[in-house]
Amino acid sequence: MTDLSGRRLLLVHAHPDDESINNGATMARYAAEGALVTLVTCTLGEEGEVIPPGLAHLAPDREDRLGAHRVSELGDAMKELGVTDHLFLGGSGRFRDSGMMGAPQNRRPGAFWNTEVDEAAAHLVEIVRDRRPQVLVTYDPDGGYGHPDHIQAHRVAMRAAELAGERAYRRDLGEPYEIPKIYWNRVPRGAVEAGFARLRAEGGAGFPAVASVADVPGVVPGERITAEIDGAAHADRKRAAMRAHATQITVHGDYFALSNGLGQPLLTTEYYELARGTGGAPAGEREHDLFAGVTA
Ligand SMILES: [Zn+2]
Question: Does pTM surpass 0.90?
Fold first, then answer.
């Protein structure tokens, strides 16, 4: 096993469940190898839809207690992944889920989308300067699929990375620190198309209908991918972490569905595009370690 002591990975996500869907295998791998894996979740996912009928009373238009429930789901998911360092940006409940783009919840006071980027970023700067990760993982500028909280998570993560390294910025938040490598979550079109082909060949794997490539966040041509992490050895942990988010996700074997019930492939190889920093693979090849080329 590679000695990963001293390696630190920070992931910034919008809602509980995003980390397990996007990065569950990567997180499990690095945690198992001894790296410090830190997850920052920006909201409690209060506006999510609830899959199990028995928990429908938690929904925001009824008791509005989904956030607290999702905190416990996230805790269970982190146990499955072996990750102990997880925080909510600004503390639990500081920023609220903004709902889908255009929803009235976007403009609610305290909604993440309705918060100044620099105000939210300051909370993350403090974490960056304390943990000093060599690698940051977040979404692309569109948040993968245009959800306001995902777009905002991208903006806040990128802004915090910038501010953390500025010598003159808020020394009360810690010593300046420059993150060497920043990745965006991506999915290569070929891999997701192949996954859908298998799913259709299996008759939908128990889901009433099958989603399409357009429903998958972050899909890009394969050439854009600069790193791929083979999570085969951690696939069961990723599945278990996704199952822990039971209000949001249903898992059937190698496939899963969100609240719309549409089956889609559960990818255990996870893909990234290097957005900032120097890669450890020759041009045109993919890295197989997010820390490749990191020296400190
Ligand atoms: Zn999300």
Answer: yes
